[in-house]
TrEMBL record:
<dbReference type="InterPro" id="IPR026748">
    <property type="entry name" value="Clarin"/>
</dbReference>
<dbReference type="GO" id="GO:0050957">
    <property type="term" value="P:equilibrioception"/>
</dbReference>
<keyword id="KW-0812">Transmembrane</keyword>
<feature type="transmembrane region" description="Helical">
    <location>
        <begin position="97"/>
        <end position="123"/>
    </location>
</feature>
<protein>
    <submittedName>
        <fullName>CLRN1 protein</fullName>
    </submittedName>
</protein>
<feature type="transmembrane region" description="Helical">
    <location>
        <begin position="189"/>
        <end position="209"/>
    </location>
</feature>
<dbReference type="GO" id="GO:0016020">
    <property type="term" value="C:membrane"/>
</dbReference>
<keyword id="KW-0472">Membrane</keyword>
<comment type="similarity">
    <text>Belongs to the clarin family.</text>
</comment>
<keyword id="KW-1133">Transmembrane helix</keyword>
<feature type="transmembrane region" description="Helical">
    <location>
        <begin position="135"/>
        <end position="155"/>
    </location>
</feature>
<dbReference type="GO" id="GO:0007605">
    <property type="term" value="P:sensory perception of sound"/>
</dbReference>
<dbReference type="Pfam" id="PF25807">
    <property type="entry name" value="Clarin-2"/>
</dbReference>
Length: 232
């Protein structure tokens, strides 16, 4: 592939990686990771609410990695409550998983920026070291993509397996019991998915530029080895 086309590919990959870093950093600071509804089970059972009456006992909840908000409905109108994971909810959430998600988010942002820098370096400079060359580009893209996948897996397990929404809904609730009525992942969670796909795309762009994947044997080396074997 001509050098000019390689420069264009590396520039596109660098811009995508930089946009990925900005998007991930913005997503970490929002409370738009999970949106859902919570049912005041105790209140609904007391009045035996059904149908339209049940809507008076369904509140809302949304949260991110650091803070969130819930609106409890127990038949007397919505009452909002702001909460923070640190230190308010630290005792009731799976803290090790939650902290791991935050750490992997930080690693994703850092390595996406590093990848963007090296893509631009390879576009306008001359690669002279391994980490500046194609192997390094594959490495940064692989680390960023892996971190994005780990973030989604860990956070999904925290929400679905450990019932994070219910734990938050029942935080500091004495006589009332809340149950998750419905929940879905919001914009910030899907931004992390897009970032993972972007990093995977960057690796494909490096391959499209004409560079072999790391640890893959070229045809020339295989041919040479075969010729040597025939000599003996």
């Amino acid at each position: 592939m001509p050098a000019q086309q390689k420069k264009i590919i590396f520039c596109v990959a660098g811009v995508l990686s930089f946009a990925c870093a900005l998007g991930a950093a913005a997503a970490v600071g929002t409370q738009l990771w999970v949106k859902g509804t919570i049912l005041c089970k105790t209140g609904a059972l007391l009045v035996n609410a059904t149908g339209q009456e049940l809507q008076k006992f369904i509140g809302k909840i949304q949260y991110g990695l650091f803070y969130g908000e819930r609106v409890r409905q127990c038949g007397l109108g919505g009452r909002p409550f702001q909460f923070s994971f640190f230190p308010d909810l630290l005792k009731i959430i799976p803290a090790s998983i939650h902290v791991s998600v935050i750490l992997f988010c930080a690693v994703l942002v850092v390595f996406a920026l590093v990848g963007a820098g090296f893509f631009m370096f390879n576009a306008f400079g001359s690669p002279y070291e391994t980490l500046h060359g194609p192997v390094g580009l594959y490495l940064w893209s692989f680390i960023s993509c892996s971190c994005g996948c780990l973030i989604m897996i860990l956070f999904s397990s925290e929400v679905k397996i450990h019932h994070l929404s219910e734990k938050i809904a029942n935080f500091k609730e004495g006589s009332f019991t809340f149950k998750t009525h419905g929940e879905q992942f919001a914009n910030s969670f899907w931004i992390i998915l897009v970032c993972s796909l972007v990093q995977f795309l960057n690796a494909l762009l490096v391959r499209f530029a004409g560079f072999q994947f790391p640890f893959s044997k070229s045809k020339d080396s295989g041919t040479t080895t075969g010729a040597v074997d025939l000599m003996y």
